[in-house]
Amino acid sequence: GSELGNWALGHWTEEGFDLFENFPDLASALWAAEERRLVPHQFPNHHIPIPEQYLSEDAAVAVETRAVITWMDKNPFVLGANLQGGEKLVSFPFDTARPSPPTPAAALRPLDYEDEHPELQETPDHAVFRWLAISYASAHLTMTETFRGGCHTQDVTDAMGIVQGAKWHPRAGSMNDFSYLHTNCLELSLYLGCDKFPHESELQQEWENNKESLLTFMEQIHRGIKGVVTDQQGEPIANATIVVGGINHNIKTASGGDYWRILNPGEYRVSARAEGYNPSVKTCHVLYDIGATQCNFVLSRSNWKRIREIMAMNGNRPIRRVVPGQPMTPRERLRLRMRL
To answer: Where does the record place the Peptidase M14 domain (predicted)?
Structure first.
């Protein structure tokens, strides 16, 4: 019967892929880079590239997964949700559990020991994800009625109808984690109801349970800041980086120089940066009312690109200051002509 189908039933394709967990595990790569102190100067905290081995033709990747990744790379999505069933809650990143650091006590554990409490790693946007999850769960007709427990086990949401994925069901390579670390999009999983395959007579009630939640969730796209990054001539700057102070996760502008950044109400120090331009910084206020705050940036061109080119021609060595009246060597005269 349909009532016996839990959240995992129907996750696998005929080829044996669980599509939700078939994405590159970028979270583990980020944490490994953090431990080596490579973030953000040598390893980005956003738009992390897909590993080459994942893109190879013989990689164990479903054709549907490849299609979704292409779709996400093509469109600058900002807010997303995947609809699932067999449970009644909202799950948000990280879904991946960060391995606990090695300790002396770990050496005493038996070989078959399993850590029942992996370390939870919150995203830099943890407060925003909680807001988004609560916006859905609180508007659902029955999602926060957890006094009866969860659908199939005890309540894992602390009576709020929301849970971080790694706390509930840790798994690597989820669509939510990939979307957050590879694109601008904040994505959550909406588990619409306990019955994964409701009967036709029950569909109308399921729609009523979730209708207002879906509308409320979509409205959250208008919460935060938005704007356009241009140069001094008014031309848009694509792939400019938007940095929000206190949140160690950046986003990029779209092809038209426009950007959107979902944020909770508050005051933020925001900067826009782009290769070949001087950064611009301003304070942006996010209000409680629905409606994103407009924060535009105009960047002036920087001389650093030309300076780096000159230093590269000089072997990245300090450029000797020319003293009037002091003779120059032939090599120094050649370098001076090249710079000019």
So the answer is: 1-221
Predicted confidence (pLDDT) per residue in 64-111, tens digit: 999 999 999 999 999 999 999 888 999 999 999 998 776 554 444 444
Q: Give 301's DSSP letter.
A: B
Q: Are 97 and 170 in contact (CB under 8 A)?
A: yes
What is residue 109's predicted lDDT score, i.e. its pLDDT? 47
Beta strands, E only, the chain: 79-84, 87-92, 162-164, 186-193, 224-231, 241-244, 251-252, 258-262, 266-273, 280-286, 293-294, 297-299
Give the tokens for residue 96.
Answer: 């991946």
Superfamily name with CATH number, domain 2-99+121-221:
Zn peptidases (3.40.630.10)
Cβ burial of 244 (10 Å; 0-12, 13-18, 19+) is buried
Q: pTM of the prediction? A: 0.84
**322 pLDDT higher than 60:** no
CB 157 within 8 A of CB 89: yes
CA–CA separation, 146 and 149 (whole Å): 5
CATH superfamily of 225-303: Carboxypeptidase-like, regulatory domain (2.60.40.1120)
pLDDT at 196 over 90: no
The pLDDT value given to residue 106: 47
